[in-house]
Amino acid sequence: MGARFIFSGALAARALGLPGMSPDTVRGFRDKELMKERVRAAGLRVPRSRRVRTEREVREAAEAIGLPLILKPIAGAGSADTYAVRTPAELNAALQATRGVPGASCEEYVERAGSGDASEGSLRSASSPR
Question: How far apart are the C-alpha atoms of 86 and 62, rounded to whole Å?
Fold first, then answer.
């Protein structure tokens, strides 16, 4: 089932009394900013980010977050319309390329993301005991 049909499937399952993810759970997986809010609320670190809808909001978020950053659709899949922005010129190009995207996440670029914890200057695997 394509990602765009998952929410409809959750609504149908709820209406028919079938097991499956709730529409709210699906929304949390599809909406990148909502997902980050939920992860942050659970006490985990996530990149600084802002939900943006207009060029002005993107520019304000870029100013607040700083470069480099990532600009990506709120409900995108497979990295479509996702841009790494390192310079003002790349920001302008990304804005031009995402004109048709209704909502986006402007987020801090994390140089070395992975499954470990880089706190206290050393990398520990997420599965390693402390």
Answer: 10
Do 75 and 103 touch, CB atoms closer than 8 A? yes
Local mean pLDDT, 10-residue blocks, the chain (130 residues): 75 91 83 88 93 95 96 79 94 94 92 56 40
Give the residue from 78, 72, 76, 75 showing the smallest Cα distance to 107. Answer: 72
pTM over 0.85, yes/no: no
Which superfamily is assigned to 48-111 in CATH? Answer: ATP-grasp fold, A domain (3.30.1490.20)
Q: The tokens of 93 are what?
A: 């190009």
Domain ranges, ordered by start, for the chain: 48-111
Place of tokens 């804005």: 95
